Amino acid sequence: MRIAVVGSGYVGLVAGACFADMGHEVILVDNDHRKLVALRNGKVPIHEKFLPELMARHRGQRLTFSDDLHEAVRQSSVIFVAVGTPPTESGEADLSYVESVAREISGAIDSYKIVVEKSTVPVYTSEWVRKIILRNGTDAELFDVASNPEFLREGTAVTDFLFADRIVIGCDSERAAEALREIYQPLTSGSYYQRADAIPQPDRAVIPAPIIVTSSKSAELIKHASNAFLAMKISFINAVASVCESVGANVHQVVHGVGTDSRIGPRFLNPGIGYGGSCFPKDVMAFRAVAKESGYEFRLLDEVMRINEEQRQRFLRKVRSALWTLRGKHLGVLGLAFKGGTDDIRESPALFIVQALLQEGCSITVYDPAAMERAEEALRPRQTNANIKFANSVYEAAHGVDALLILTEWEEFANLDFNRLRGELKYPIVIDGRNLYDPDVMAAQGFTYYSVGRAASHPDGVPAAALRNANNKK
Ligand code: UGA
Fold it and tell me: Catalytic pick from 18, 171, 244, 279?
């Protein structure tokens, strides 16, 4: 099918590349000229596994780039809108980009088109998009509006798209539902997965991908409710981790016991320094605002957000209590991205913690495998002094510091060379906001180790057997 995707951000770019890989002709539309030039020249603006391969495979052939929305609409039968919906001051989603795209699309419709919202939007958006298109003079018979929320995660976006747990299409007309079914047919029939050049299947893939057809409003709510529920799971386990710390229990043992109940499941129950990124913080707030607007006070979501904020503060308190005073302390920080596997620092709890520690008078050497450039842009302007340094490796960040903080769950940080690390640190203190290590092993390796939801461990408090086991493991 001929598809236009409007907006080449995370969702638009990944969706466009994946639709091309499924065999469709895709025009990716954006009004950012620099971005378009870069894309046309084969530059992939985000750090995303398999995206460079898909871009190389389809760029200039099944995947083209344009700034001409009008022409793209004329040439396509389905138009996916994947522009940004940033939060306003009051936490609602700002839909002005969606509205202006809808207006422009309206002026270009000359035959039947389906306009599909792919951005995360509040309930009723598809109704509004429909009204805007009608208001701008398009005949009702010439178009349908549908909702097709996206559930991809950064870092695994391509596989999340092609091996979706489910595909949700919200349509209020059978004609639109039919067209969307056809677009996703390579995934729902399983034919995509038979191909020798298909993107490799991840663990836990549901094949073929199930499709769920709902009304537009239900589809819009499915997206908000899913993100809010996942954020709630994280805040829930972070709250449990705080209780574990108070009573001396181990949160991982609790997660194991709780998560093996198949009704609960173990995923998204990793305690840490709270959720960040461009989705959960914004979407929980937006869903809260939508509910309020519709007359329901969704106070549970206030608490989800409060626990998330509190989690960062708790971690800062942990750093203070490990180091006593902070002014003048030199800290190494591993991780700036909001999670492992991405260079995205939007709403990153790691960045928040670094900024708070700088304000308290620490000097910090940071390292992240992918987010350094973005973090430098974000941190440098505010730090006119030399309190922040950017290292080229984990061990450079650890060199001569009073303590090492782990703030992002990169795999690279979970496999450190303990001897080398100990040699670099001024004091062998590790404060881990992502629970990448076993406290006993760390103590046996000579570290004082703090983590989330588990008791701190110290080298002199470790039984000899644990020491022997840990050494054998190394
Ligand atoms: C999230 C959802 O997982 C996707 O399904 C959704 O499509 C996407 O938002 C979106 O709306 O576009 P993403 O923001 O890429 O995806 O990242 P997640 O992997 O969900 O992680 C979000 C945050 O939660 C990260 O800061 C991560 O470190 C944290 N997290 C995640 C935890 O603290 N504990 C966990 O168990 C899982």
Answer: 279
